[in-house]
Amino acid sequence: MSYRVAIVDGVGREVGRAAREQVRKALGEISSEKLGLGGRVHQVRKRLKKVRSALRLLRPRLRTSYAAENAHFRDLGRLLAPLREADAAVETLGRLAQTGLGKDDGRALGRLLEAAVRRRDELTSDDARVRATLEEARLRLADGVRRIAAWEVDGDGFDEIGAGLAKTYRQARSAGRAAASRQTAEAFHEFRKRGKDHWRHVGLLRDVWPTPMKARAHELHALGDLLGDDHDLSDVVDLAERIGVSEGQADLLEELRLRSANLRERADSLRIRLFAEKPKRFRQRCQTLWNAPPLS
Exposed site from 97, 105, 113, 212, fewest CB < 10 Å? Predict the structure, then answer.
């Protein structure tokens, strides 16, 4: 079943159903030998992000404690984070090596890749600890299915999600403006996270008007890719600064910062278009679409 909801009264239950389905899929993936360790961790963390986005959509009308539910899934993601981050650094450096860097930059990148591989191998070499981490995650996922089943939402129809939809849109819009103003890695990372929430909500609600909503989701995904690439570059810069920057690495870092500036400029062009509406107007438009008669 896809990550989407039907346009019905009781949509809060539909959102809970979609979140519960993500946790069930994560339970299957965390034990899948076909995916490998890196694939399992990556897939489960993506599922958890969808669950937390669903929770944020319901937050203003949720009777259950948002803080407790969010903490459960947040801490589960953090449990797996070190395994994913070490693997992601190797993946990022591997991709960069295929982008036509100069000879000196390529050698510097190779040294960083060697350091990243060592760090990943150190984290994953203790089989007993890795198995214990995965088992703890599996138990928390199983508990997550039970927790989501107990979610209760006030309101009816669009009222169950309207406030949450407007709030996350407002947060993404504000984070985007802050990133454009501050031009820091932290600000762009925050924009990426809040933009991803909005992207997932648009995907959940795409049946209100499929073609335009899919188009919006497509552009939001493109924005997320740009910001994700920028975040990866920032992580590489941080890694280089931690292990010591040689002369060759200094030249590489300058190249990476130039690429980052280009990514941020392209992301800002999308931001202006995607978040032109004020939050109140965005909510009103979505509510109008929700209440409109079916197209077919």
Answer: 212
